[in-house]
Amino acid sequence: YAWSLLSQPAGGTAVLSNPSAVNPTITATVAGDYVVQLIVNDGLADSAPDTVVIAAAAPADLSVRAYLARQPALGEYVGVWFYLTNNGPSTATGMTVSIPAPPGLRYHSGAWAAGAFDGATWLVPGPLASGSEYWITFNYYVETPGTKELTARVVGSDQVDPVATNNAATLVITPNANADLRVSLFGPPTGTIAPG
To answer: How crowded is the C-beta side of 88, counted as CA atoms within 13 Å?
Structure first.
């Protein structure tokens, strides 16, 4: 196999991962058309060149950040916020954010700036302009003690996302089990109760 990158858009710095591999990869660095050629040899002669044009869309770097106002008590509702930001350079469309509730947190209600949410997946058709953000907020009921991690993760968009390391944000929720206190009186008191 003899692969070669014949052309790429102005300013592109893409390279083939391994020009002699069966399936090399290429990472587009700018939007536009990338022309790749393949010549194979059967041990006797080279084949005629075959080319393919790869059209790369302009990238949109999506990021997620999270906010938790306070740690909840066991048996109460906790409010959380996630923000989906487009760091550009292009407008983003067709975004999907996965936000599954961990065991012990039950989705109760929510509101969002755009799109639709089914209790686990936020579908945001966009457009989300570069430098803009959408928000989503929820109330979860805390059913069990113990630390829970609630993560929002970008799992898809119509554009290439060049930075995967900022595609998720996690909230660590640790309910205070001692906050659910109750005093019970089993019989009338006897004797004298002194203040202090």
So the answer is: 5
CA 115/CA 126 separation, integer angstroms: 8
Q: What is each CA distance from 25 to 19, 20, 96, 174, 181, in whole angstroms?
A: 9, 11, 25, 43, 60
CA distance 185 to 158: 63
What average pLDDT values come out for the chain (196 residues) when binned by 10 residues? Answer: 92 90 86 92 92 88 96 95 96 96 95 95 96 96 96 94 95 80 55 60
User: Using CA atoms, how far apart are residues 37 and 35, in angstroms rounded to an integer?
Assistant: 7
Cross-strand partners of 128: 92
- The model's pLDDT over 167-178, given as tens digits with 9 standing for 90+, comes to 999 999 999 876
pTM exceeds 0.90, yes or no: no
**Could you tell me whether strands 148-156 and 95-98 are parallel, antiparallel, or unpaired per DSSP bridges?**
antiparallel
Beta strands in the chain (DSSP E): 2-7, 32-39, 50-56, 60-68, 77-89, 95-98, 105-112, 116-117, 121-124, 133-142, 148-156, 168-173
Contacts of 70 (CB under 8 A, 6+ apart): 78
